[in-house]
Amino acid sequence: MQYSYLETFIGFCVMLFVTLCIYFGYKTYNDYYIKDNNFKTVFATFQNVEGLNKGSSVFVSGIKIGTVEKLTLVPSSFDVAVELKISADINLPNDSQAIIMNRGLLGEKYITIIPGIEENYIADKGEIHFTQSAINVERMIGKVFSELFGSNYFKISSSRH
């Protein structure tokens, strides 16, 4: 059986493509998923987590360091306790701040952590005490329209501010 150079070249290209797909797939998996033995749990409590979900990203200085693991309503205060799974090699100062942000105007929500300046760090199962809830863009737009047009059609009421 005689093979042409074209068939050999195509076979080589297919093998190279499959190898690159496996390599980049493995690299992407390792970049986006923190291995179970290489993380710590940190808690933060927010008044409003509207739009934040399990699996939402956690960033420090624009670099992904973890994900939201669990959201739990605190019955006594109606706040939400958020469990964060972050990389174990990230040491957050005790006075760090967690803020819920939007990706774009109506994009997905994520948490960004602004590191503090204290020399003591939040331990595994520790808590971030300084938090800021998400800005509700829809409510803000409703208030603007209500003020502009003086109409009750756009009025959005809230018992908590």
UniProtKB/TrEMBL annotation:
Membrane-spanning intervals of the chain: 6-26
UniProt key word Transmembrane: yes
GO BP terms: phospholipid transport
Statement: the UniProt record of this protein carries the keyword Flavoprotein: no
Keywords recorded for this protein, A-Z: Membrane, Transmembrane, Transmembrane helix
Mce/MlaD domain mapped to chain residues: 40-116
Source domain of life: Bacteria
Record PANTHER family: INTERMEMBRANE PHOSPHOLIPID TRANSPORT SYSTEM BINDING PROTEIN MLAD, INTERMEMBRANE PHOSPHOLIPID TRANSPORT SYSTEM BINDING PROTEIN MLAD-RELATED
Record-linked NCBIfam families: OM_asym_MlaD
Protein name: Mce related family protein
